[in-house]
Amino acid sequence: DVQEELKQLREHLPAWVEASRLHAAKGKVAGYIPELAGTPANALGITVMDASGECVTVGDCDLNFTMQSISKVFTLLLALMDRGEEAVFAKVGMEPSGDDFNSILKLELVEPGIPFNPLINAGAIAVTSLIAGSGPAEKTKRITAFFSRLAGGRPLVCNEAVYRSEAATAYRNRSIAYFLKENNVLEAHDDVEEVLDVYFRHCAIELTCAQLARMALVLAHAGRDPLTGEALIPSRYVQIAKTFMVTCGMYNASGEFAIRAGLPAKSGVSGGILALVPNRYGIGVIGPALNRKGNSTAGVHLLETLSQHFGWSLF
Ligand code: GLN
Q: Which positions bind substrate (predicted)?
């Protein structure tokens, strides 16, 4: 049960973190966003939070990091709440791509111009265009308010330096977005640069492991914040998001992660990973060194260790 697991976590987690930290040496901090390149490569921190808000926190947990691709799960949820399932899935597919997260290669294979899924960059940019609001500032404000609410209420803030750094160098994402525009996935009324601006800003929203764990906890409890009792997201949409996390959340290493850990999870190029154990825990991890597929090497190792020790795999 939860109390016994928390006890074991308190006992073993420090050793597991140190063992996993060694795996950071096999990875590299993302360099394509210049501002991320300075992050300490062998940092590793984790928070596991249960339904009562009790936390086990180990390692470099004071580190603030940007959400990057983890934000895509939550913009998907907000877009579903704003527009409904039909409108969202008119713009993005439901299939893993088998390509890198920023792939431009296979954009046309599902349907003409329709990105494979909402968690690759192409799909996430399309989803961002669906967020309700009168302009980019209001959309960003709605996204930030939604994320902050899920993270426990304290207002989250965009890291301006990371945002500017990405916006100034995002040639690939710009290419993808203009391609989406050509194919009317971004529509006549969507200004490409404005959509990208909202996208870069939500990727640069900064938080801690504990805040990430709290967001995960809401997903672990079908959209209801177990600490406040508030229903924040319809359970059907959480089900959709969790399914994407299993099939696409770790990019084209999602199959391997499903076999080794078997938990819904989403990684980002900052080295963050959000994971959850349904009906039990929200988990936030940070470990900036990434493997070739763009996932935290130490973070993946740590989550696999935990899941295998406790038998958390869903499968
Ligand atoms: N902001 C990043 C990008 O668009 C997010 C990618 C990621 O975290 N994998 O390139």
A: 69, 121, 166, 173, 199, 251, 269
The closest alpha carbon to 145, from 159, 133, 156, 132, belongs to: 156
Domain 2-65+207-310 has CATH 3.40.710.10: yes
Q: What ipTM is given for this predicted complex? A: 0.96
**Does residue 69's CB lie within 6 angstroms of at least one atom of ligand 1?**
yes
Range(s) for CATH 3.40.710.10 in the chain?
A: 2-65+207-310, 69-203
Q: Is the pTM of this model over 0.80?
A: yes
- Taking alpha carbons only, the member of 7, 9, 8, 21 closest to residue 286 is 21
- What's the gap in Å between 312 CA and the centre of ligand 1? 28
pLDDT class of 12 with cuts at 50, 70, 90 = very high
Q: Would you say domain 69-203 falls under CATH 3.90.930.12?
A: no
pLDDT tens digits, one per residue of 163-204: 999 999 999 899 999 999 999 999 999 999 999 999 999 999
Point out the ligand 1 atom lying closest to the alpha carbon of residue 32: 10
Atom of ligand 1 nearest to the CA of 121: 4
